[in-house]
Amino acid sequence: MKVLLAGLTIIVSVTGIAHAQPQELQEADAAAGQQKAQTCAACHGQAGISPADVFPHLAGQQVSYLAKQIMDIRDEERIVPQMMGMVSDFSDQDAWDVAAYYAEQEANLGQVSDDAAEQLVRGETLYRAGDRALGIPACSACHTPTGAGIGSAVYPALAGQHPAYTQAALRAFASGERVNDPSGSMNDIAAKLNDDDRQAVANYLFGLY
């Protein structure tokens, strides 16, 4: 019950953030973003559904989160070698426009295979309730019960994401290779997950919607 209450407290505090959208988001131009996103299609798909599991789906992602990632990669606050040359000449406006375009696309719907059913029990427990003994809060507190994320808090959508990509992201947070989490909590949380737990959460998220 304490874990659930803690999760609800986080949700309430996050949704209590000012509802006014940032000026950049208000002025984002999805049509312009579609043109600028042409160079992204080879890795992320024409409509943001990536054909390769090493690259994330971008369709349906929160605008604020995706714009931040593009700018962080451009500014080398998040190191993604494959993208450095792609976004090095992006302006902030370009980042918001591209993010707005992908946010309008239909998010991926994954389906987990039957042989992962037993593992999904652990994944669902971690996502919805966390693990008090390990000091892991419920993922749903920040990413919502449906995995849609919270744009006002710059928390990403996770549902339908490639399991391999989700696991890689969690490993990067756990090792400290990635440190651009807007809440500053992901490094600590990810470090408390073992490989089996990372895989369980990633598979559960793949089929969540």
Please tag this protein with its features.
mainly alpha; globular; disordered N terminus
Question: Your description of this structure?
Answer:
This protein is mainly α. Helices cover 51% and strands 0% of the residues. The chain has twelve helices and no strands. It has helices spanning 2-15, 23-26, 30-36, 41-44, 63-74, 81-87, 92-103, 117-128, 140-143, 163-175, 186-191, 195-206.
Brief rundown of the structure:
The chain is mainly α and 209 residues long. It has helices at residues 2-15, 23-26, 30-36, 41-44, 63-74, 81-87, 92-103, 117-128, 140-143, 163-175, 186-191, 195-206.
Order of helices and strands: HHHHHHHHHHHH
Low-confidence stretches: 1-20
Tell me the distance between the termini.
25 Å
Number of discrete helical segments: 12
Q: Shape from CA axes? A: globular
Based on DSSP secondary structure assignment, what is the total number of beta strands? Answer: 0
Instruction: Kindly estimate the percentage of residues that lie in beta strands according to DSSP.
Output: under 5%
Query: How confident is the prediction overall: mean pLDDT?
Result: 90
Protein structure class: mainly alpha
The helix content is 40-55%
How many strands, what sense, and barrel or not for the largest sheet?
Answer: none
Q: In angstroms, what is the radius of gyration?
A: 17 Å
List the helices and strands and how they pair.
Blueprint: H1 2-15, H2 23-26, H3 30-36, H4 41-44, H5 63-74, H6 81-87, H7 92-103, H8 117-128, H9 140-143, H10 163-175, H11 186-191, H12 195-206
